[in-house]
Write a structure and sequence with these properties.
The chain is of the alpha+beta class. The protein is 51% helix and 10% strand. The chain has twelve helices and six strands. The termini are far apart.
């Protein structure tokens, strides 16, 4: 009698997670995919070691050039303007992501501005504007600025709406406008990029680990007799983490092994231990 086919790895991982009490995959999805600063990542891939400042300056040069240019045909000009507008949107979104949750002594908060309400009185957001609130951590001072929808979604070469808003807040010169490459990617293979090794894998480990309790080995160096020692690297945990990463980012982790993943987590725990000691 033929054996029934084994479930696919995608389906199997959900069953195994449920067995460990994890039935809401939404949080995992948020950690491994949704929280990636997409604009900052695409900026780093596209512009390499170029800084935000350099690219913004180059965009302004192109705007000034097009104001006086008479060589380009109308259709060529339209294509160039479209490309510059799209690039400026990418760069400004990357700028916002690079300065979250704040800059200097200022906490930044972004909220969409409702464009109306529906029949039930619920706010409606159709091509909304953006409100930016800056709050000083020490003094409590609050500054506000907004970007109107017509400026936020403009298709022509106007003034940079984000720059204008941050100038109103008095924070444009304070914003971090350096290179994003070292925060997200590197010359290594993608599986070794900081975006994964410093952010996604550590957060995924910290979220999943409490659901995989397993008795660990006692160590005189790091434990006391009263400690309830838990294993830091249960095989089930490492395998489930690897399956999740391979499912969500197959082009990055297809060739990654459990041992490589374990080594990455070990480095994370070492950094965490050093940070804890320095804070004492």
């Amino acid at each position: 009698m033929r054996k029934p086919p084994r479930p696919s790895s995608a389906a199997d991982i959900f069953v195994r997670l449920a067995d460990h009490g994890i039935r809401d995959y939404g949080r995992i999805k948020e950690i491994v995919s949704f929280q990636i600063p997409q604009s900052a990542f695409f900026f780093a891939v596209r512009f390499g070691r170029r800084t935000l400042e350099e690219v913004l300056t180059q965009i302004e040069r192109w705007k000034k050039f097009l104001k006086t240019d008479f060589l380009l045909l109308d259709n060529h000009r339209a294509e160039v303007e479209k490309w510059i507008v799209q690039t400026e949107v990418l760069v400004c979104n990357a700028l916002v992501q690079a300065n979250l949750p704040g800059v200097g002594d200022w906490e930044l908060q972004y909220n969409w501005i409702p464009t109306g309400t529906d029949e039930a009185g619920t706010p409606v957001f159709i091509w909304p504007g953006l409100a930016i609130t800056a709050r000083h951590r020490q003094t409590g001072e609050v500054r506000e600025a907004s970007i109107p929808s017509q400026a936020l979604y403009a298709s022509n070469l106007g003034a940079n709406p984000y720059q204008k808003a941050f100038e109103e807040l008095g924070l444009w010169k304070t914003l971090e406008k350096g290179s994003l490459r070292h925060h997200l990617i590197s010359a290594r293979r993608p599986q070794g990029w900081p975006m994964y090794t410093r952010f996604i894998i550590p957060q995924l480990y910290e979220f999943l680990a409490p659901h995989y309790p397993q008795r660990g080995n006692y160590s005189e160096k790091s434990n006391t007799p009263k400690d309830d020692v838990k294993a830091r690297f249960p095989k089930e945990l490492l395998q489930d983490m690897l399956d999740i990463l391979q499912m969500e980012h197959p082009q990055v982790f297809a060739q990654t092994t459990v041992d490589q993943l374990k080594a990455n987590i070990q480095r994370h725990l070492e950094r965490k231990a050093k940070s804890t000691k320095s804070g004492l």
